C-alpha cells in the first residue's frame, strides 16, 4: 500500500483529519480534496488525501479562505507534478548520454582554446614551455 491508495471511507478519513464527515463532503464539492469513488460511488480517501485535509485545516486556522487554499493546493500539486517530470527527463537524458556513441569530451588546446575530443581519446601533449606573465605594467 502506498500513500495514494484509496483505502479510507469518509468516516475514517474525517477522524484521521480531525474533521466532521460533512466538511469532507463540502471540500469534495469544492474540489479541494477529491477522493476516488468505489463502484457504488462511496468516497475512498488515500493517506495523501488525509494529509491534504490536515493542511487545509491548518491554512484555514491561519485565516485563509477556501478559494485561497484551493489555489495554493493547485499550485503545490502542479509543482509536485512538474518536479516528477523533471526527474523523468533528467533520468532519460542521463540514459541517453551514457548510451549514445561518440559522446564528446572537452580539453584545453595548446593555445588555451577549448578542443572537442571523441570519448576515449586524449589531447595531444606538448613539451613546450609556456611562460606566464600577468597582465599589467611591465618592468
Characterization of the model:
By secondary structure, the chain is an alpha+beta fold. It contains 4 helices and 5 strands. The chain has helices spanning 10-17, 21-29, 47-61, 66-99, and strands spanning 8-9, 36-37, 43-45, 104-108, 114-118. The strands form 2 sheets. Strands 1-3-2 form a 3-stranded antiparallel β-sheet. A two-stranded antiparallel ribbon has the order 4-5. The longest helix has 34 residues, at 66-99. The chain starts with 7 loop residues before the first strand and ends in a 21-residue tail after the last strand. The mean pLDDT is 86.
Attribute tags:
4 helices, three-stranded antiparallel sheet, 5 strands, alpha+beta, 139 residues
Structure, briefly:
The chain has 139 residues and is of the alpha+beta class. Helices cover 47% and strands 12% of the residues. Strand 2 and strand 3 form a beta hairpin.
| Broad shape | elongated
Order of helices and strands: EHHEEHHEE
User: How far do the termini sit from each other?
Assistant: 77 Å
Number of strands: 5
Give the radius of gyration: 29 Å
Mean pLDDT: 86
Largest sheet: 3 strands, antiparallel
- Ranges where pLDDT stays below 50 over 5 or more residues in a row are none
Total of DSSP H or I helical runs spanning 4+ residues: 4
Strand content: 5-15%
- Computed structural class: alpha+beta
* Spatial order of the strands forming the largest sheet: 1-3-2
Helix-residue proportion: 40-55%
Amino acid at each position: 500500500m502506498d500513500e495514494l491508495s484509496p483505502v479510507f471511507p469518509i468516516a475514517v478519513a474525517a477522524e484521521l483529519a480531525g474533521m466532521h464527515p460533512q466538511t469532507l463532503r463540502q471540500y469534495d464539492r469544492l474540489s479541494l480534496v477529491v477522493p476516488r469513488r468505489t463502484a457504488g460511488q462511496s468516497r475512498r480517501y488515500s493517506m495523501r488525501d488525509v494529509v491534504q485535509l490536515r493542511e487545509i485545516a491548518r491554512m484555514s486556522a491561519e485565516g485563509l479562505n477556501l478559494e485561497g487554499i484551493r489555489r495554493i493546493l493547485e499550485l503545490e500539486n502542479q509543482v509536485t507534478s512538474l518536479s516528477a517530470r523533471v526527474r523523468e527527463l533528467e533520468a532519460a537524458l542521463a540514459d541517453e548520454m551514457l548510451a549514445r556513441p561518440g559522446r564528446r569530451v572537452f580539453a584545453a588546446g595548446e593555445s588555451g582554446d577549448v578542443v572537442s575530443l571523441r570519448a576515449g581519446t586524449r589531447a595531444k601533449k606538448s613539451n613546450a614551455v609556456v611562460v606566464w606573465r600577468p597582465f599589467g605594467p611591465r618592468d
